[in-house]
Amino acid sequence: MKLRIVQPRSRPECALALLLACAYPLAASAHHSFAAVFDREQPIEITGTVSDVEWMNPHVWVHVEVENDASSPETWAFELGSPNGLMRRGWRHDSLTQGQVVTINGVLARDGTMRGAVRTITLSDGSSLFGAQDESR
């Protein structure tokens, strides 16, 4: 068997190959560890009105408007699992819609912002949806 070395045909091909090789580690490191962002020891339960749902990779986000202790509205953002993971657990794009009243059980973000990770979402009819988060990392 004879080994053949393939040479790039042009500088643009070399530049593209180099760019892709450099970008791969950035994409791989863009995903975070659950424990680095969220505190499993800080549970939260919030009831509010869905104001927005973002179906995108790597995580789905649901934004919920709640009334704080001073009776002022606050918007909380909650991370769920990936769209694919949610769909495998029975979710659909229309499982949550703007204006729905929901109760979210989850954990708080470590940075003290109004963010968290969903463990379960309970709908007004009493049904629950699993947040599909991998808390093991």
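[next item in queue]
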Amino acid sequence: MTVSATGPAASLGIPEKNTIALMPQTIGGQKVNYIVLDDASDTTTAVANARKLVTESKVDVLLGSTTTPNSLAMIDVAAESQTPMISMAASAAIVEPVDAKRKWIFKTPQNDIMMSLAIATHMAAAGVKTVGFIGFSDAYGEGWFREFSKIAPVKGLTIIASERYARTDTSVTGQVLKLVAAKPDAILVAASGTPAVPWLMSNHIYVNRGSDESAPPGTSDVSSAGRSGPRTFHTVYDNGAAGSWSIEKNAASDAAVDVIGAVPGTQLLLRFALSGSSADSPYAAFVMPAASAIETYDRLMFTARANRPLRLSVQLRGSGGADDRWRRSVYLDQTPRVIQLPFGDFRHVTTVAAEHPDLAHIEAILFVIDTVNSRIGSNGEIQIDDIKYAK
């Protein structure tokens, strides 16, 4: 077995590798030996691993790899050695057309045309007419674009912009701004694994929402892409003490709010450590009074960074009690970024309330770390500053 336990596809390869512990130890009365190699999300290494497994280990079956490019690269090895190969990647190109080589190849996921059909059907039902596409600049991304291009016109969709990025890219801001400038009703992201593209990972672009998109990293609005950014602001926190802030948490977890130096002025340092059992639903919440001014604005903005990659749940809490909460999560890492969260994008925690929060009844803003996005035992620090309402 060769999997991408490291590299850009590690978030897929690691659980695949861990699954081996759950696999049967005997099949048909015969003992099964599993040999697991890491191809580091690299096609050359995947081919080398495949050759090593069939020539040195004399395996009866090849499992792998995690990604479409790696799996495609391994086909020749499987065909030459006449070793059945089962891929965990999705592209139809891995198994189609069934020729002399691909008769040895199988895969576990559904074909991308099936996923494209489901997405296109949902888009059409939501009133989407135009679509922007962004995907990997490899066989996976091209396969998605090819299959989605087939089904889009059938569902009355028009692809009006298309962009690509490498799996290892650390920024896709330029491509995203081009897509947003084209003003599509929706954007399809054809990506998998762990590419370092925080904005795409955490800032969904909702359909038919006008100018509600969250801004790319390092920017406060998307006006440079043809959309009007916020022009009026109400500062909630910018320098100074944190006297009005409070902490809420389960009994076993720890949390603290400190004021630290910044350039210029000061900022807040939120420290947390989640502890307890899963039955406790561990959490740490940093609570700030909302102020009545919130009802005259349409979004929350703040600058933030974390000491490690994590997801922060930003919540609006109303006067109706603990369950009267609306939330939206954002991705943070060591890079400071300006976050924009339109209030219309927040969703109720029970999903049964009204579509949008009633800002006149919002009493507090919560910055929450919980087990929805973090593991029990995790800890970290978040620096936050320049919190304001905008419109």
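[queue empty]
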